Amino acid sequence: MKTKIGLVSSVLSALLLAGCATDTYVSQENRDKFAGLDVSKFLISECLAPEREVHIAIAEHFAFDKYKLTDLDKSNLDSFVEEIRGLKGRITIVGHTDYKGSQEYNERLSQRRAKSVADYLQTHLDPKNYDWEVKHLGETQPLLLGKTDKDRAENRRAFIVFEEAQKYEEMPFCEPPKPERKVYMAMTPHFDFDKSVLKPEDLTQLDDFTAQLSDLQGSIMVAGHTDQAGSVSYNEKLAERRAETVVEYLKTKLDPKQFIWEVKSFGKLQPAINERTEKADALNRRAFIVFKESDITAEQQMLSGSQQQALSGNESEVMSIESEQEPETNSQY
């Protein structure tokens, strides 16, 4: 999973970097689209670097009632380690289980799964370079709501997010997050080929996710992804549309002013599965959602509300322009 995200200076534009420069086109229009003073101030208050790298990984192959990492998950984590080696920042890990067993037992099991990931990472990285935030949610945040063996297997997982941060002494106005704060992560079920439309089952899952955020404040980051087919530039736009679709729906269920919103487009650069099969392509067409609890100031609420109105107009204009363009050939997603 190889993606770098930079929030550039006061503009805080989303910049994707991976591999050689010729393979990482991101339009200036898309980079500037979600710039905002509210995001900048929130990042500083969270001790996060205004220009920061963000990397995401998933350990999703836990056996039933087990917390041992599989070789496939270790390989995924090895790639994650190489991406963040030499960087300093915050690593957040959230463990999950399926619904089998008591809630108390599943909470302990999800804690062991999250700890397995943390232990593995700490043996392959210098632990002193990172702030570690390890959470466990048991069965309370299922990725899929079904009861089949396949659904249960999908729910036995751990999410891992790295965000680059500066040292506290370099950011005197920030405060480390409270240890007891809530962190929720989710993935949408998989988008259809070359589509950014949410399906009914997606809405059900997002409704369950937003129900957990009642009476909370904080940041919501939504990152869009595509499969490996097609050009980097087109996939970047498609992934952004997928993320925007999720954000637009979340805002119908939440008070937008209670959250700081970030939209990321990973395009094809951070696949969940590094394979070129029909199944792998389907799994890679997704959006990743991260909520982190934090206090939002009245000023940030005002900035967030006014900026969202401006963004709504910009989004309509951009979509109108894109709809008039000739579709790219060899663009399959």
Automatic annotation (TrEMBL):
It comes from Vibrio lentus. Its main location: membrane. Residues 302-333 are annotated as: Disordered. Residues 302-317 have a biased composition (Polar residues). This is Cell envelope biogenesis protein OmpA. InterPro entries: Bact_OuterMem_StrucFunc, OMP_bac, OmpA-like, OmpA-like_sf. It comes from the Bacteria. Residues 49-166, 178-295 form the OmpA-like domain. Keywords: Cell outer membrane, Membrane, Signal. GO terms for cellular component: cell outer membrane. It is found in: Cell outer membrane. Residues 1-18 form the signal peptide.
